[in-house]
Amino acid sequence: MEKHFLIPISRRDLLKLFGLTAAGAVVGSNQVAAAQTPNITFNDAQIPTLLRADVCVVGGGCAGIAAAVTAARNGLKVVLIEQGIVLGGSQTQGLVYPAMPTNIHDSDTPYITDLNKRFYMHGISVDFDSDPKYKNGGDARQYAPELLAFIYDEMCADYKVEVLYNATLIGANTQNGKISAAVIHTIEGLSKIEAKIFVDATGDATLSRFAGVKVERGSEHTGRNQKMSFRFEMGGVEEMKVYKFFVKKLKDSWCESKPPAFEFAKTTHTENFYFAGIERGEVTKDDVAYIQAFVINGKPGTLSMNCPEMSPYIYSSTSALDRSKAIQQGRIMIRRLANFFKKNIPGFKNSYISREASMLGIRESWRIHGKYYMTADDYFDARKFPDAICRSAYPIDIHDETLNLGKKLAKGEFYEIPYRSLITNEFSNLIVAGRCISANFSAQASVRIQPTCMSMGEAAGIAAAYGLKNNIAVNALDWDIIPESQRSYVSRG
Ligand SMILES: Cc1cc2nc3c(=O)[nH]c(=O)nc-3n(C[C@H](O)[C@H](O)[C@H](O)COP(=O)(O)OP(=O)(O)OC[C@H]3O[C@@H](n4cnc5c(N)ncnc54)[C@H](O)[C@@H]3O)c2cc1C
Question: How many domains does the chain have?
Answer without folding.
Answer: 2
